[in-house]
Structure formats: structure tokens, C-alpha cells
């Protein structure tokens, strides 16, 4: 026996399993696409997202997140951007990988059992396991009016969602949770706006994401301290009263922390 093949002192032998069937596991990519728009008869914007009506079983006729099986010729990010393009005909203001969802049984019934602490239902004999890599994206407010119109694609307010296919309600809840946390330490809120905006418009984005009203004076001080926006020297035209100032992003700051992989790519692409 060679030295390389000898077990290390104290090492625990791990039994190899060669009878595991991986053919029933598939990989999909879905995208949570968020944009700001007001509800009917309201002026303040809220978060909305597009859903796609399923045309085949399972869950035929129910709404679901845009997505599908991973194209072997696309990267994960390219697949997510392609999904967004098909659903909205737009380019994202921001695109980020959210999480991988891979519970053995990804159904509303299984999710309900987990919430109340009951045993999850067992998968059927014809069950196909799907692991979804989910991205979330933002659409600038200036582009929302140009989104694609289709009978099987509909925009919903995030607080008025129907029961969705699979575990997509849970995915959206997690996406909103992550967005609410990220907006506290990054300038991700700016990705929902156009190139120029007022402080009031920026505050409305924060309020829509956080779900609460913010004090205008405190908000102004916090944004000034962050140095994330720059005064353009221009004001909104056509207003009766004193026109508000217009600001733009400070391009020297990234939307959000790109993480270890993102920083690695930035260093090697520079």
C-alpha cells in the first residue's frame, strides 16, 4: 500500500454510496423582479412584481415566478437576465443571486407543514426534485411603463399575492426580507429610480421597501451623511411652488457589496 492510500491516524472512514439516483434532480433558474408603481387611486408607490400563469401541470392555471430549466449554454446570471427580458422586455437596474431553494418537496402543502411544525408530506413515486437558483432584480421607475403586456403575465402588489405554485410565496417573502436588510446598509434603493431624482422620490423608495413612513428631515441628514447622491445643480421644472432639487447617483459607490466572488472578479477584470 502506498503512503498516499494509507488512512491518516484518527481518520474516520466514510462509506461511499454508489446507488444514489441523481437522474430525477433538475436545476432551474427563477427571478423575483421588483418595481415601484402606485396602486389604483393611490399616489405613493409600492413594490410590485410580475408573475407568469402556468400553462401545464403541475399547478396548471396558477401564477408563478418567471423562470424555467437552466439552459446548458447560459450562465446562471445570463439565465436570470433572460428570464427578466422575456417577462418584461426590459433590462434590470440591478441583478443579484438571492438563494438556492432545494427542499425535497417544494409545495404549498409542505411549506404549511413546516410553518406549524408538522411532518411534511412524503413525495409521490413520480416526484421529480427541482433545485431552483433564484435571482432578484429591480426595474427603474422610468422603465416600468414600458414593460411587456401579455395575457399570461400579470403584475401584482407584493402585499396582495395569490397562492402561488410550488414554494414561490416563500421565495418572495425571503427576497423582500433580504431587500429590507440590504437597503439599510447599501444604496440599492437607487436602482429603482431613473438617472435623476428628488429626495422625496428616493424617500418613497425606502418607505415602499421598509413598509413604514420616514421622517423627511432625518432622512435628508442620513442620505447626506452617506454621500451616496450628488446634487446636479438642477431643479424640477413646471412646479407651482419652489421646485425641488434633482440628484444623481454617486457612481464612486457600488449599489451593494458584491461579496468575495464579485470583488475577485473586479480585481481581475480591472
Structure characterization notes:
By secondary structure, the protein is an alpha+beta fold. It folds into two domains: 25-182, Nucleoside Triphosphate Pyrophosphohydrolase (Alpha-Beta Complex), CATH 3.90.79.10; 188-269, Arc Repressor Mutant, subunit A, CATH 1.10.10. 26% of the residues lie in helices and 24% in strands. The protein contains six helices and ten strands, in the order E-E-E-E-H-E-H-E-E-H-E-H-H-E-E-H. The protein has helices at residues 76-88, 108-116, 168-182, 199-210, 216-226, 259-269; strands at 25-38, 45-53, 63-64, 67-69, 94-101, 129-139, 153-157, 196-197, 229-235, 245-249. Strands 1, 2, 3, 4, 5, 6 and 7 form a seven-stranded mixed beta sheet that branches. A three-stranded antiparallel beta sheet has the order 8-10-9. Strand 1 and strand 2 form a beta hairpin. The radius of gyration is 23 Å and the shape is elongated. The N and C termini lie far apart (49 Å). Mean pLDDT is 85; it is low at 259-265.
CATH superfamily of the largest domain: Nucleoside Triphosphate Pyrophosphohydrolase
What helical percentage do the residues reach?
Answer: 25-40%
Number of helices: 6
Biggest sheet record: 7 strands, mixed
Total number of distinct structural domains: 2
DSSP, total strands:
10
Rough shape? Answer: elongated
Q: Under the CATH scheme, which architecture of the largest domain would be assigned?
A: Alpha-Beta Complex
Indicate the low-confidence ranges by residue numbers: 259-265
The Cα radius of gyration reads 23 Å
Amino acid at each position: 500500500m502506498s503512503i498516499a492510500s494509507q488512512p491518516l491516524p484518527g481518520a474516520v472512514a466514510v462509506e461511499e454510496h454508489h446507488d444514489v439516483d441523481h437522474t430525477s434532480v433538475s436545476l432551474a433558474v427563477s427571478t423575483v423582479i421588483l418595481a415601484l408603481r402606485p396602486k389604483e387611486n393611490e399616489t405613493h408607490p409600492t413594490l410590485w412584481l410580475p408573475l407568469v400563469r402556468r400553462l401545464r401541470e403541475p399547478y396548471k392555471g396558477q401564477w408563478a415566478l418567471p423562470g424555467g430549466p437552466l439552459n446548458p449554454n447560459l450562465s446562471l446570471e445570463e439565465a436570470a437576465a433572460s428570464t427578466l427580458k422575456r417577462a418584461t422586455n426590459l433590462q434590470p437596474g440591478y441583478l443579484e443571486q438571492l438563494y438556492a431553494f432545494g427542499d425535497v418537496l417544494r409545495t404549498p402543502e409542505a411549506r404549511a407543514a413546516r410553518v406549524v411544525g408538522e411532518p411534511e408530506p412524503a413525495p409521490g413515486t413520480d416526484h421529480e426534485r427541482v433545485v431552483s437558483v433564484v435571482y432578484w432584480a429591480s426595474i427603474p421607475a422610468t422603465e416600468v411603463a414600458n414593460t411587456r403586456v401579455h395575457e399570461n403575465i400579470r403584475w401584482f402588489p407584493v402585499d396582495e399575492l395569490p397562492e402561488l405554485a410550488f414554494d414561490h410565496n416563500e421565495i418572495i417573502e425571503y427576497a423582500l426580507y433580504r431587500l429590507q436588510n440590504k437597503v439599510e446598509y447599501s444604496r440599492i434603493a437607487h436602482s429603482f429610480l431613473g438617472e435623476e431624482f428628488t429626495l422625496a422620490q428616493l424617500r418613497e423608495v425606502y418607505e415602499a421597501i421598509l413598509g413604514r413612513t420616514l421622517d423627511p428631515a432625518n432622512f435628508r441628514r442620513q442620505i447626506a451623511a452617506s454621500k451616496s447622491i450628488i446634487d446636479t445643480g438642477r431643479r424640477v421644472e413646471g412646479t407651482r411652488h419652489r421646485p425641488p432639487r434633482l440628484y444623481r447617483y454617486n457612481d464612486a459607490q457600488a449599489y451593494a457589496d458584491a461579496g468575495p466572488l464579485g470583488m475577485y472578479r473586479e480585481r481581475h477584470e480591472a
